[in-house]
Amino acid sequence: MSIPTRFDDGTISIETDSATVVGIGTAFSTVARKNSMLVVPRAGGGWVLVGFVASDPESADEEDHPQDLEIELAAPWTGDPLEDENYQLIAWRAGADLAEQFLLLWGRISGKGLFFVTDGIPTADIGRDNDVAFVPYTQQLYAKVAGIWQLINRPIAPNQTVETAAGLDDYADEDTGFTVFVEDEQASYMLATSGEWIGPIYIRGQAAALAEILAAAIPNEGTDAETLALGLADGDALFHTFEIADDRTLGFPTNVPNAGVSFYVEIKQDANGGHALAYAEGYEGTDGRLPLIADEPAAETLLAIFVRSIDPPRAFVFRTGRNFGAGS
Questions:
Q1: Mean pLDDT computed over every residue of the chain
Q2: Where does the source fall among the domains of life (predicted)?
Q3: Would 328 be classed as within a structural domain?
């Protein structure tokens, strides 16, 4: 028997703080696999994530089929007890790595958002910020950030791979959702219901993400000017340094991808010292006081900045250290 993308025969029950799911009329040994995702309906629409299956169930005993009626989750269920609840078990086809990544993602936003399963790309009128949506037929995940659903993965595996975009023409008659990976662009294209190709959808895999993190860790030496410019466009560092030769104003960051971004700024006095730092509109300090910087010659001050909102501009700024030295 092939593993269906979704399975919902029978009902389930689970107690709070338990990882054991008990089924009635289920066949878990046939359809459940490690990292399969278990969800239950959410009042008002959508789905709530219960958890991921911890391991492959054993084959069911021919007499009483105990493995058909019970599965273990990777982590305990923390919601209210569920009794005779409808559900969906979504099997990941060759997608264990993605399931593990999704589990990490869900751990980060747990308590802040809800999980949806949708039949197509989620529309702007559903969900709230921090919600996550999964589209089974394309096997894509979306997160809602600042009111916009953003794609956070590529399909688990493309249906076909071609060398150049010209190769897309060979698959123009495939079904909606058919995905082709174009090697020279390192991007995927997906066939829409209109018959047009949606794309390019660029890969944000582990290697690419690591490269971005390492690039962002390289200090960005800013230009000394009346207003110190902070740009957070793709590829810009999340650690900025400025050596100032006069009184300066720290500009509000531009090209911020989304609220919630944090980064560091190091302000260093020149050989003369004695220069003050003012802050552009939008910065806020602890107890209403913006931090002062060390003014001794060549003194360094490290500031941490957390962007609370983009429109209107609002960012919290903290002084994390000053007058750094080797100590004794």
A1: 75
A2: Bacteria
A3: no
* Residue 296, pLDDT score: 92
Assess whether 109 and 147 both reside in one domain: yes
Neighbour count for residue 263 (Cβ, 10 Å): 21
Query: What is the strand order of the sheet 314-322 is part of?
Result: 220-221, 239-244, 262-269, 300-309, 314-322, 283-284
Q: Which residues make Cβ contacts (< 8 Å) with residue 299, sequence separation at least 6?
A: 268, 269, 273, 293, 322, 323
Q: Per the confidence metrics, is the pTM higher than 0.70?
A: no
Q: Which of 289, 291, 286, 287 is nearest to 303 (CA)?
A: 291
| CA 324 – CA 313 distance, rounded (Å) | 31
Query: What b-and-e string marks burial along 59-75, b requiring 16 or more CB atoms within 10 Å of the CB?
Result: ebeeeebebbbbbebee
pLDDT score of 60: 45
Chain centre distance of CA 322: 33
What is the model's pLDDT at position 271? 94
CB neighbour class for 191 (10 Å; exposed up to 12, middle 13-18, buried from 19): buried
Residues of the chain predicted below pLDDT 50: 1-4, 60-65, 93-101, 104, 107-111, 137, 154-156, 203-211, 213-214, 234-235, 327-328
Query: How many structural domains is the chain composed of?
Result: 3
Question: Hey, what are 195's tokens?
Answer: 């018959």
Q: Is the residue at 52 inside a domain?
A: yes
Sequence letter at residue 254: T
Domain span at residue 170 reads 160-203
SS3 102: helix
For residue 312, whether the previous peptide bond is cis, meaning omega lies within 30 degrees of 0, is yes
CA distances from 124 to 5, 31, 127, 144, 167 (A): 26, 33, 8, 9, 33
Same domain, 54 and 107: yes
327, part of any domain: no
For the chain, report the end-to-end CA distance as a whole number of angstroms: 70
Residue 165 sits in the same domain as residue 252: no
**Long-range contacts: 105-110, Cβ < 8 Å, 24+?**
105/132, 105/141, 105/143, 105/152, 106/49, 106/132, 109/143
pLDDT for 201 equals 65
